[in-house]
From TrEMBL:
<keyword id="KW-0805">Transcription regulation</keyword>
<keyword id="KW-0678">Repressor</keyword>
<keyword id="KW-0238">DNA-binding</keyword>
<protein>
    <submittedName>
        <fullName>Transcriptional regulator, LacI family</fullName>
    </submittedName>
</protein>
<dbReference type="GO" id="GO:0000976">
    <property type="term" value="F:transcription cis-regulatory region binding"/>
</dbReference>
<dbReference type="Pfam" id="PF13377">
    <property type="entry name" value="Peripla_BP_3"/>
</dbReference>
<keyword id="KW-0804">Transcription</keyword>
<dbReference type="InterPro" id="IPR010982">
    <property type="entry name" value="Lambda_DNA-bd_dom_sf"/>
</dbReference>
<dbReference type="GO" id="GO:0003700">
    <property type="term" value="F:DNA-binding transcription factor activity"/>
</dbReference>
<dbReference type="Pfam" id="PF00356">
    <property type="entry name" value="LacI"/>
</dbReference>
<dbReference type="InterPro" id="IPR000843">
    <property type="entry name" value="HTH_LacI"/>
</dbReference>
<dbReference type="InterPro" id="IPR028082">
    <property type="entry name" value="Peripla_BP_I"/>
</dbReference>
<feature type="domain" description="HTH lacI-type">
    <location>
        <begin position="4"/>
        <end position="58"/>
    </location>
</feature>
<dbReference type="InterPro" id="IPR046335">
    <property type="entry name" value="LacI/GalR-like_sensor"/>
</dbReference>
Length: 328
């Protein structure tokens, strides 16, 4: 029988539609013999439960909400890919949206997702993001990724300060005496921590800083700006790989050799970092794994696992040495 309905199952099993639904959804308030009879008939008739109806019975939507600052570029593509792989392995669906760095837009999105998702993964690293916690529904499980919300039982954060320190020390070890920084936007907590860590290594006159916005264009502009200085840098730390890609292009167009004239270091280790010219030295944070682990942490919360399994995780960036910084 093709296209069998729950009503068909109930009629053939000689039970009510409600009893057939409870049996198919594995609920306890149905007799064992009824459950067995209903399941056998459902199998024989090749019955496929309706996802929406099933979610109402089980009080679950089998959908996870994902809120990111943006959905453009390799970094966010890798985050989403990690979340998606982990979600598909568990039969879950994703509802993805970007806030474009606007806390008001993020608030509107989270309210819109209420009742449509079982839990929420949020990445909102902007300094105003802590205000979002008070707007979240109390019964909506939330796991944060590199955010300042702190609204969930668990979260994943990156040691951005330590990463900035590592980048600065690496340039110094490569013999760079005039380092410079292309930072992320000042409203971004992660960017500020990378800036703070990088500058903490140097005594006296601080290195020159160009404030970018994590895009290739701002990395390109930052490198162009440094090249106009009376003493141009001999090492540049771009606070994410996309800005480093733009930086490399600007240096190549200006006839500057990397790393012989200027060493370049990025942050994130997105897939393209291995294929730049020259290949980019960077701080690896495991972008794919940030998404995957975030989803797994949220699922653990949804399934009521012990709180020790959903405590926060701090990721320490790992220096990946490639040709762009071999300055000596």
């Amino acid at each position: 029988m093709a296209g069998a309905t729950l009503k068909d199952i109930a009629r053939e099993a000689n039970v009510s539609i409600a009893s057939a639904s409870r049996a198919i959804n594995g609920l306890d308030n149905v007799a064992d013999d009824v459950k067995q009879r209903v399941l056998e008939i459902a199998k024989r008739l090749r019955y496929v439960p309706h996802g929406g109806a099933r979610s109402l019975v089980m009080s679950r939507t089998n959908t996870i909400g994902v809120l990111l600052p943006d959905i453009y570029g390799e970094f966010f593509a890798e985050i989403i890919r990690g979340i998606d792989v982990a979600a598909r392995a568990r039969g879950l669906h994703l509802l993805v949206s970007g806030s474009h760095g606007n806390p008001d837009e993020a608030l509107s999105i989270m309210r819109a997702m209420g009742g449509r998702v079982d839990g929420l993964l949020v990445m909102s690293p902007f300094v105003e993001s802590h205000d979002l916690a008070s707007a979240l529904p109390l019964n909506l499980p939330v796991v944060t990724i590199a955010s300042q919300i702190g609204a969930g039982r668990g979260g994943i954060s990156v040691d951005n300060f330590g990463g900035g320190v590592t980048a600065a020390r690496h340039l110094c070890e490569q013999g760079c005496r005039r380092p410079a920084l292309i930072s992320g936007p000042s409203r971004n907590f992660e960017a500020e921590e990378r800036r703070r860590g990088f500058l903490s290594v140097f005594d006296g006159e601080p290195p020159p800083v160009f404030e970018g916005d994590f895009t290739e264009e701002s990395g390109y502009s930052g490198a162009k700006s440094f090249l106009t200085l009376a003493e141009r840098p001999d090492g540049i730390f771009a606070a994410n790989d996309m800005m480093a890609v733009g930086c490399l292009l600007a240096l190549r167009e200006a006839g500057v050799s990397v790393p012989e004239d200027i060493a370049v270091v990025g942050f994130d280790d997105i897939p393209i970092a291995r294929f730049t010219s020259p290949p980019l030295t960077t701080l690896r944070v495991g972008v794919f794994d940030l998404g995957r682990r975030g989803l797994e942490m949220l699922v653990a919360t949804l399934e009521g696992e012990d709180e020790t399994t959903t405590q926060g995780i701090i990721v320490a960036p790992e220096l990946v040495r490639r040709e762009s910084s071999r300055h000596k």
